[in-house]
Design brief:
mainly alpha; two-stranded antiparallel sheet; 4 strands; globular
């Protein structure tokens, strides 16, 4: 129904009957950075001999390259296209349907485990699905993949399924640059599901427990995958952190997080600064309502992109911070007209989705 609403909304805006088709829907979900993923899927990463070919920005002059994007999603499409002999468009459509569905199911599953109330978990999932900026989960983007691997990692830890966790850590690390940092909240959640967590304080004796130490080794899979990818980058580009250097092409550079706010006067940067501050405020005042692991997840997910010196795409980065949606939904669940809130959120969802349909920079 959510996918159909995108299709009908796009038709309502442009009145072109041809959009009511598979190709029309593909055209809707294939915008902005998807072109980069298609290029990598088709041609893979280029060999680099000059570091400037990774990317640079000098005033109005800039160069961007494929190396800014992590390999799992384009690699998955490349593999699917080659094995099934289908074009990128069909492969991207297939995986967008699969991973968006897995994301919504995983979110509900985790909420049920965390909240232990089916009604509240269902309401939280509705809010999550139609939250204003969460249309990204249905596009040919990495948000759905990233959150799928992340949230099912939490679920695997909850059920003590170490082998499943081992498998999930590999794509989690290779789908987005900040995937490696998610090992920290996952490890804290691992400790929280064992003995040793009292009021968010870790009893250090637990960390030196022999059984805990042995089971903790599974988390080494993430840094191992990351190191191997860095070695691959060194082999092809001459730079261990080619993905980081390539970010310069998007006018991003290491910056103290607070200095990223309100740096530009355009509407996009101003709005994203205000929106991020609201999310930071919610997180700060809700610290005691959630566990240490989820608090760390929130602040890592906020501070890492803020350290780039740019507010571009902050609404995208915030969309995968699922504890924020849990906090927001728990607040509105108390309202008598809580389902009116769902309707309002859905209206806002379609409104901001119109920016995506127009390939407006606000949707980057």
């Amino acid at each position: 129904m959510l996918k159909l609403s995108y299709l009908m909304f796009a038709y309502t805006l442009n009145g072109n009957a041809e959009i009511i088709s598979i190709n029309g829907y593909i055209d809707i979900i294939k915008r902005n950075d998807v072109g980069w993923y298609e290029r990598i899927s088709s041609n893979w990463y280029p060999k680099i001999s000059d570091i400037r070919d990774l990317g640079y920005s000098e005033g109005a002059n800039f160069k961007q390259s494929e190396w800014a994007f992590f390999p799992f999603y384009p690699g998955l499409n490349r593999f699917t296209s080659n094995v099934l002999h289908i074009p990128f468009n069909i492969s991207g459509l297939l995986w967008s349907l699969i991973f968006s569905t897995l994301t919504f199911i995983g979110f509900y599953w985790f909420c049920e485990l965390l909240i232990k109330d089916i009604s509240k978990a269902f309401y939280a999932t509705l809010i999550f699905m139609i939250y204003p900026f969460h249309y990204y989960f249905s596009m040919m983007y990495t948000e759905a993949l990233f959150l799928t691997f992340l949230i099912y990692s939490f679920i695997a830890i909850y059920y003590k399924k170490e082998l499943v966790l081992l498998v999930l850590l590999i794509p989690l690390t290779l789908v987005r640059p900040n995937g490696i940092f998610m090992v920290i909240p996952l490890y804290l959640f691992f400790l929280e599901t064992r003995k040793g967590i009292i009021d968010r304080h870790i009893i250090w004796q637990t960390l030196i427990n022999k059984e805990i130490m042995i089971r903790s080794l599974i988390f080494l899979m993430a840094p191992i995958c990351f190191i191997l990818y860095c070695l691959y980058q060194k082999y092809v580009t001459g730079q261990y952190f080619a993905f980081s250097i390539a970010q310069i092409g998007w006018y991003k550079k290491l910056t103290f997080p607070l200095l990223s706010f309100f740096r530009s006067g355009d509407f996009q940067s101003q709005f994203n600064s205000m929106y991020t501050l609201v999310v930071c405020s919610i997180s700060f005042f809700s610290f005691k309502k959630i566990s240490l692991s989820l608090n760390v997840l929130i602040w890592l997910s906020l501070l890492i992109p803020l350290s780039s010196g740019s507010m571009i795409s902050m609404q995208r980065y915030i969309s995968v911070i699922f504890p924020i949606t849990i906090l927001v939904s728990s607040y509105f669940y108390q309202f008598k007209f809580k389902y009116a809130v769902v309707a309002i959120f859905f209206a806002l969802h379609l409104f901001v989705f119109s920016y995506w349909l127009n390939s407006n920079p606000f949707s980057y």
